[in-house]
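Workshop exercise sheet. Pairs work together: one partner reads the sequence aloud, the other fills in the structure field after running the prediction. Swap roles for the next sheet.
Pair: D.N. / O.F.
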Amino acid sequence: MTNTVLAEKERILNSTNDIELETIVIDKENYFKISNSDKMRPFFMSIVSDSNHWMFISSNGGLTAGRKNSEYALFPYYTDDKITESADITGNKSIFKVEKDGQEYMWEPLAIRSLGRYKTTQNLYKNRYGNKIIFEEINHDLSLTFRYQWSSSNKFGFIKKSKLINTSSDSIKVTLLDGLQNIMPASIGSDIQNQSSNLVDAYKRSELQVTTGLGIFALSAILVDKA
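Structure field:
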């Protein structure tokens, strides 16, 4: 019983690590790192681009992004408080089923609903030029590290890169779901999204062209203004 209490006490103490800022190198590029970023109150950032991309993103992962202006948004264009509140339903979504030592674990890194299930550390990285940002969660119980990065390309648009790292010497089996959610249908401007978001969600249609792997996001009907 004493060992159990001490182990739990150590677990709690380790989960209250201080927030630290340092400079590190990732893939031969300088990044500013905020350790234990989840222990800070969410804050807002912008990701710069050398073309017509724009991205506003919260430190908890909620975001809006697009090209040119708000009328060409890839994710719903809202105020910063709504973007922060939408972190679990907009942008990145990653879910892992991990088989390790004969047991099965479900892990949803960087998600609010998963906080407290495992002993984790969350870190945030932004490169020196301000055009790349990396979100990271280290799962100390499963010995896994997950990272995803946002950047942009004039040719390919917004780019999300995901990486899962096994930090132990044991082999594991992973089944994963990794992608994006709450992508805007085509031709929906900011006014329609803000005034009729419920209708937009109701008529949203998502399709996959299997031969090309291209996703199509559109409305199944034209929205009519009764006014």
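Discussion prompt: The two ends are 69 Å apart (CA to CA). What would you look at next?
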